[in-house]
Specification:
Strand order of the largest sheet: 14-15-16-13-12-18-19
Distance between the termini: 72 Å
Bound molecules: NADP nicotinamide-adenine-dinucleotide phosphate
Radius of gyration: 23 Å
Largest sheet: 7 strands, mixed
Length: 490
Amino acid sequence: MSTITASQEHQVLEQVPKQLYIGGEWVDGNEGTLAVEDPATGEGLVDIADASVDDAKRALDAAVDAGPGFAAMAPRERGEILRRAFEAITARADELALLMTLEMGKPIAESKAEIAYGSEFLRWFSEQAVRIDGRYSVAPNGQGRLLTMKQPVGPCLLITPWNFPLAMGTRKIGPAIAAGCTMVVKPAQQTPLSMLMLAKILEEAGLPGGVLNLITASSASRTTGPLISDPRLRKLSFTGSTEVGRKLMEQASEQLLRLSMELGGNAPFIVFEDADVDAAVKGALIAKMRNIGEACTAANRFHVAAPVAEQFAEKLAEQMGSMKVGRGTEDGVEVGPLIDDTQRAKVAELVEDAVAKGARALVGGHARDGAGYFYDPTVLTDIPDDASLLREEIFGPVAPVKGFSDEDEAVAAANDTEFGLVAYLYTRDIKRALRVVERLETGMVGLNQGIVSNPAAPFGGIKQSGFGREGGYEGIEEYLETKYVAVNLD
Ligand code: NAP
């Protein structure tokens, strides 16, 4: 990779629209502007529009006005818009990756991987737009016919987090457009730039004005609250923390909104004694270190069979300890900064709590001095049962390794959490694999692999990791209503 220059950084930042996108127009925010920061330096990158409550309401007005026209657009045409946007993102992958690294911090190679992953949702749903169908059947008593059809849900509010600035948007926007829904999108205030670029790309791809409206705001609750209680809104799709998800569900109950909730995780990573330990360490590195550990799917706890636990921990520590930490734009960097000081302080607190209760750091265990929010890759062993990091989402580059003695103990430990997003399992015994997969209380399982995300698969959790699925055949269903018609043939 060639070194990225300050002028290249300046150029990609210049291209980003800094305004709100409402009804097909780029407009200023009525609350002024808000600053977007580079987490690797703590310095400001650009200022963007700060929406007022009235701006947000205008965005919903535009979505409501555009609704019937967009629902009537030919599915093929909706698919073609998504396809063109996919092509445009692919063609501009390098500049979009740089932009993402600047606002979020992850290394360029990981940003490129997210651009490929995120844009693939647009391609996948461009193909699904023309596969929305219904049923025709004879009533069981032979009298009359039963007709079912799928229709767009209507105006949606899509709220996304900062950790995957593009993909968390395309997982919602792709199926919403394919289904014929209009929307108001509210990205996280820390990483709005990738989504602003996506809105511009969709506009250039021919998305009619008013279908996608984008608001950026310094106060999420102030701007989205009135939309959630507006009777014209039909659906809320949220990706973020379980804590905020709970609040939004409460608010959404007023209108009985359709909901999709992609919330927090606490993924167990289980390694049995029959596993290929080197393959497990390789998978563990991906499951733990992708996105600097700031992923809902990040392995949060490593449960390893006692006979191989020490070997696994040492090999993982060796690999994690040799990873290059630095600004994501620099050559060879594998671990960028955490998103902000609050996040880093939370990671440090969880490590300090575990160490104070008896855990031992094989590598790392410290925040880095200097600018930016860096935390050293850390492997902990001798984890006490009451360590907070066994129950809380770490969201950082910290891997606690804990031994287990048998299958029942491993499964019990894995399920001992309020979350249920994903689990990882390493074993070469196919019978054990299926037995354990069936007992794991999660929406997804990585079997002998450290990554599950795939646009063609249904992503989502159970328990307090939420409900609803993004991607796969299931993804578009979240944006469709089923209407049944009783047909009288007498
Ligand atoms: P967050 O604090 O819950 O914020 C997520 C989004 O909600 C942001 O756009 C935020 O806006 C907005 N928000 C916050 N409070 C709100 C309120 N009272 N009303 C309306 N909107 C509100 O989560 P985060 O820290 O950005 O993201 C990390 C979390 O997301 C982790 O728990 C992670 O596991 C989860 N996550 C889950 C998935 C999944 O698919 N299951 C995927 C990725 C991440 P502001 O930026 O303005 O605060």
